[in-house]
Write a structure and sequence with these properties.
The chain contains no helices and eleven strands. By secondary structure, it is mainly beta. The strands form two sheets. Strands 2, 4, 5, 6, 9, 10 and 11 form a seven-stranded mixed β-sheet that branches. Strands 1-3-8-7 form a four-stranded antiparallel β-sheet, with no helix packed on it. The N and C termini lie far apart (about 40 Å).
Amino acid sequence: QVQLVESGGGLVQAGGSLRLSCAASGQTFSSYAMGWFRQAPGKEREFVAGISWSGGSTYYADSVKGRFTISRDNAKNTMYLQMNTLKLEDTALYYCAARRTMDRIYVSTAQNEYNYWGQGTQVTISS
């Protein structure tokens, strides 16, 4: 069992930056692949970024490549999403997700492959 709690969401102007955090508790954090998903009102939930349990492998949705950076600090049981050059279309509820795995380089874009989810943190872009 692992519990995930997102934080860092808020209101920011287009072009600005924001850093989201996902704190994990329970089982060994380093044995989980992690990912970020987001969902805007009236739209499907979509993959944003994923990272392997070692942090050595990452994957990004085309819409955020070059702007967002996913990272993790296993010693702190925390995953981050650095969001730069934010756009109006980035407005959404952002979710942290985790999957138990023995594959050190495993990353996934499929939400059905993740076993644990946080409650979400709201990101709203203005202007």
